[in-house]
Amino acid sequence: MDETTMMALGALALEAATGAGASGAFAGVGRTRQVDLAVRGEALETVSESTSQSLVLEVWVDGRYATTRTTDLRPDEVARLAREAVALARALQPDPSRAIPDPSLFAGRAELDLELADASIPALSHADREALCRAASAPILGQAGLISTTSACSDGEGLSVQLSSNGFSGSHRRTWLWLSSEVTLQDAAGRPEGWMSAGGPHRSQLPAPAEIGAEALKRARDRLGSRKGPSGRTTLVVEARVAGQILSRLLSPANGANVQQGRSFWAGRLDQPAVSPALVVRDEPLLARMPGSRLFDGEGIRAATLPLIEGGALRNLYLDTTYARRLGMAPTTGSASNRVVQPGSRDLAALVAGVEEGVLVSSWLGGNSDPTSGDFSLGMRGNLIRKGQLGEPVSEMNVTGNLLALFAGLAEVGSDPWPWGSTRCPSLVFEGVDTSGA
Amino acid sequence: MPWSRRQVLAAGGVLVTAPSFLACAPKQAQPQALGSALLPNDPFLSWFGIDPATLRTVMAELTSRGADHADLYFQHTRSTSLRLEDGIIGEASARVEQGVGLRCVVGDQVGYAFTEDLSLPAMLQAARTAAAIATGASRPPPETFASTGPGDRYSLTLPWEEVGIAQRLPLLSRCEELVRSKEAAVSKVSVSWSDSDERVLIADSEGRISLDRRPMSRLWVSLVAEREGVSQSHGSNLAGRHGLEWYDEARLQQVCDEAIARTMVLFEARRPPAGELPVVLAAGASGILLHEAIGHGLEADFNRKGTSIYSDKLNQPIAPDFVTIVDDGTQPGERGALNVDDEGNPTERTVLVQGGVLRSYLHDRISAAHYGVPSTGSGRRESYKHPVLPRMRSTYMENGPHSREEIIASVKHGIIAETFTNGQVQIGAGDYTFYIKNGWLIEDGKVTAPIKDVNIIGNGPESLRRVTMAANDSKLDSGGWTCGKDGQGVPVSQGMPTVLVSAMTVGGTRG
Q1: What mean pLDDT value characterizes chain A?
Q2: Closest-CA residue of chain B to A262
Q3: In this complex, do B274 and A421 lie within 8 Å of one another by their Cβ atoms?
Q4: Fewer CB in a 10 Å sphere around the end CB: N or C, chain B?
Q5: A240 and A131, same structural domain?
Q6: Low-confidence ranges of chain B (pLDDT < 70)
Q7: Closest partner CB to A48 (pick from B95, B112, B421)
Q8: Who's near A414: CB < 8 A, 6+ residues apart?
């Protein structure tokens, strides 16, 4: 299914919806091809190949709203589903906050090549993929204590088109290639694991496969002999590779839905000092070769930099049309693209060297946070830090507190943003954090 | 995409008390030769023309390079969701998902492909893709397909496909009305509804064919309450393979009362002290302990690869002798119930731990062949987009010899865990966590102050050894738990009697 066919299918859905009485409609048609190949040890284990397609249709009918989604793209079925969506909306109550996005938000779309598609990725053969996996596993095979290792390659290409009854039209084409390795080793107490994953929209972004395998092996070895650390109040150095996860917990309630529904600790705190001024975060949709980049969002709103945290305060919410109307604010965008944290000046080694006593967090395990209160409690693993030196590996520990208090205690941001994925977050140093262990 | 071997379980934070365990032996229907005839009420024939000749043609392509086993998994799912916010049911969504997954198995190797286009040329193309894993001589397709017959663990008198949208709306409105009438401190009520009517057809290279219709529904009530400028939020939900009539007034009252009680108690709740404490797990949703501490570790794919901490513990004592743990796909109406698993095998009641001794892993076809044992009917997948993996269904611990009262009275200083939001495990290390949303302190053998937002972390084998008491009040939780593994989510159930674990690491504070 090419772009022209997808546009025609979207137009058919819009026409059927408006013909059935919708005052507005927004259609999206997507097609994705993905290949996953895994090699365990020295044997090919799994090859999975798929092509997926779907149509999503939103309709507005007399102040009412409904959506529908289908993978059955036969034109008759699409038209039938569009009419059904209109009937579905008519069964609901009017909601004055529901409206098709204002077309003024479509205008001024950046004319940039975000370099999100690499023609060499769809051209990969299974032999290419298998070779990447074997190269990743090469540094691991034959190592002492090895129980199992698997390296996996995941790549694909996607094309999506969006169009609306009030004039929006756009398309996105993107590719991706990721390579991962995982390792299980034997030690006296258990079977510690390590993993590493890297990739992006372009094949050239992939590091040497052997580096991925070697890093996974190192991560597993780092866990050998780990035991429970002490309970106490201490300094946490959170490695860049997992720092984005705690940042995501801070920012996930910073959206219109949570704030309007009373489920956000950010409510009433816009532009109020709340966290350390060391933290500066922006949503950056227009960066080349970043997985979250886009020229417009799911509502067709033109993409632009969105300052999130500056000067210790939240500066903007993620706001789609519905919740912006409920809050009486202007829409920004309803979803995150790439979150970029302004780096500091010192690398991880220097950050650790500056800590008298603390814990280096290299992975989280479970836990959760309450978006209303900001209270959180997370499992963690890593290494003790004593007098600026890394000590023994620790596991079975929790860190507990409140997200705003935690980020108010952010002492320093590292210079080492994690280069894989849509969050560019460096290592973070938090002071005065409660940990529990033995 | 980044991935790791961590397995997760998520509920959104709620449990609902459920009836006691229901025992039901799997129906062993006699195979019925189909020849050119078709399964009764087969939508895949009437909607897409999938007849036995088509199945044979596609199967022949799928095994054209040889196969130890091959199967076709057709799925058609219609789902509806609704949402009430600010007193308005202002959002509805309808979804149709259909496709076929094609799998070719050679030893432990799997070739997999799926297509959403159910035309013969598209299916043949997908079959060629999946068959590429094999390198041998072709295997002829079965001459006929024989049905193992439908089960009856969740048939509805009124299937969701026949329920009008107007019949669903009062459920949401009634919940909002109930909450508003019961608690003035509530500032926001949101009610979410979802239901689905899923049909699957599974045909394999051995000539077996199964047709199953799998309903699912869930009602979720979430609240925000305010008191003296402080907000708290929580909720409760009901879920299962149930029809409209199951959501009666008593159950709506129950879910609303639970949502209110769980939210309002948060205003009084505090954090427990940090460190190792005795933990009493309340009956019901505490089955999350089993799911994380042992359930994932007994999924046989991890064991045949040697990556589970339980890989070398079969037939060894791993818990006190009063501990019996079961994974069961036969309980009518439960989220984890199945008439057949996603490989077409009958589901069963699998005893994992009997009297403290590890007795079985959970097997799909591949691991069963690896170990030379029958499948336990545990082969599951999220949808036609995913290959089968060994998965849990409904995991619970049977009654123990103690009472809840004597368990609580035995604790000098500890906590009791009541409601949970999510859990996670690292298979190899055996380290697992679960997150307590509501709980209580136990001081001098008495339940005292409420606690909230506490992560618990432990090591699976160690925690099982530390189960020092188990009560005679085992029950299933009927909340909407979804288990995640290798990027696939499947509905599961879990249960537990009141249990004491003598020491676990509790995420508390020093202040």
Answers
A1: 96
A2: B224
A3: no
A4: C
A5: no
A6: 1-40, 149-150, 511
A7: B112
A8: A240, A343, A344, A346, A347, A348, A351, A426, A427, A428, A429
